[in-house]
Amino acid sequence: MTAQRHRTDTPAFISALLELRATAFLARVALTLPFWWSGVDKLFHPAAALAEIHAMGLPASWTLYVLLLIVQLGGSLAIIVNRYAWLGAGALAVFTAISTYVAHAFWNLEGAARFAEMNVFMEHIALIAGMAFAALYCHEVKDR
């Protein structure tokens, strides 16, 4: 980080922590955890993955299965290694937006179910924002 970008109101030990390569790497791993974990699980349990695809009202096809793996694992890897992170973040954000709209349509529910699904929906919106921040950060800091 350059001296021009250093915040004077940030304590020195926090600045040092934020400038560590490991901090940036671990943050990227943690941000993508839901995607790469799901992708690895789908990789080892293809029948369950196809059933999940079908449960969302889509045809349980091997093409969708492979595309899902590419998006979840490839998008995560792009962010984690900070190569084409913008593409990985964009793919994961679009995937999250579509699957959230399909799977968490709280506006069709009532009572406690509506409240629970609305919370999941909002959490996914925050995850999409996290992808935007990942793309911004990785664009700004190419070597971490």
TrEMBL record:
InterPro entries: DoxX. Keywords: Membrane, Transmembrane, Transmembrane helix. It is a multi-pass membrane protein. Signal peptide: none annotated. The chain crosses the membrane at residues 12-37, 62-81, 86-107, 119-138. It holds the Pfam family DoxX. It is found in: Membrane. This is DoxX family protein. It comes from Dyella lipolytica.
